[in-house]
Amino acid sequence: MYDVIIIGGGPAGLNAAMLLGRSRRKVVVFDSGEPRNRWSQSMNGFLSSDGMNPRDFIQKGRAELAKYAVELVDVVVESATYTKGEFVVNDVDGNVYRSRKLLLATGLKDKLPELEGVEELYGKSVHHCPYCDGWESRDKAIAVYGRERKGIGQALAMKNWSDDVTLYTDGTDSLRRDDLELLERNGVKVQKEKIMRLEGKNGMLQYIVLSNGEKRPQQAMFFSLGAKQQSDLGEQLGCEFTNKGVIKTRRLQHSNIPGLFVAGDAARDMQMVIVAAAEGAKAGVAINMELQQEDRK
Ligand SMILES: Cc1cc2nc3c(=O)[nH]c(=O)nc-3n(C[C@H](O)[C@H](O)[C@H](O)COP(=O)(O)OP(=O)(O)OC[C@H]3O[C@@H](n4cnc5c(N)ncnc54)[C@H](O)[C@@H]3O)c2cc1C
Fold first, then answer.
1. How far does residue 287's CA lie from ligand 1's centre (Å)?
2. More confident position, 212 or 251
3. Which of 16, 33, 13, 34 is nearest to 25 (CA)?
């Protein structure tokens, strides 16, 4: 019987494990090794570790946990249930684990544009988050991908980082006259032609090839198509979700299920490493406080 099972060993899960380990709790962290930013070479916007390789960041975090009673198990968790104050967790190898508290820190996975060539460029010159990668794309020829009217906001936002921004609507023609006027007033170019493929070298976008054969030079692309939960464990446990597909949490990462906490991208808040780690720390403290209350004689 563990005090706490943590599912997900990204920044949220590891930071929670650190606080719980430091509180002398018996903790196990399960991780399937697929953090959301694994496509990227640099983790930006984290004070003291700006630009660090995300894999190095995780390795450093795991090494720091070695001195605490925290077990790290690299396995996929398949199912989790809660009955009468006890969580039961099954991994894919058929092992069963029990705990008093459970933290879900399983993160999200992104929906990519369905474009030939996108996977080789994703995380290097094709991005979804301007706060993570806008600086590195500054003053470049930036494409924003958004079918119908979905790219307007991001195209306008990217003017923050470059004067050269083009919105690609990929064969759709839903922009209204006032949209076009707004984009033009703010210096955003619009390209409605269907995209055939993206071309680049060593992960760096060079051209967007259109269905009319035109090759348009572009150095970076941003998109915003949303993300979904990386695991269905929140659903299995009966968590409440927002209409954006993230789990509803209260102030200290409590979910609607007693003893179940959710931290990081899987939960409602800004989706950045430093926020995920902070939520993990909050959850770690809140879980320990609950255990203290329950054990008080
Ligand atoms: C391409 C890209 C670049 C990014 N760049 C930045 C950046 O520069 N700066 C920044 O602040 N943010 C960046 N982000 C966002 C950042 O990746 C997330 O905010 C952060 O990873 C969230 O941490 P987390 O711990 O919630 O989830 P994750 O880091 O996604 O970790 C979740 C972990 O849970 C594990 N897991 C999931 N399901 C199971 C299961 N069933 N069993 C066992 N383990 C499971 C996964 O394998 C994973 O290791 C980027 C995201 C992407 C996609």
1. 22
2. 212
3. 16
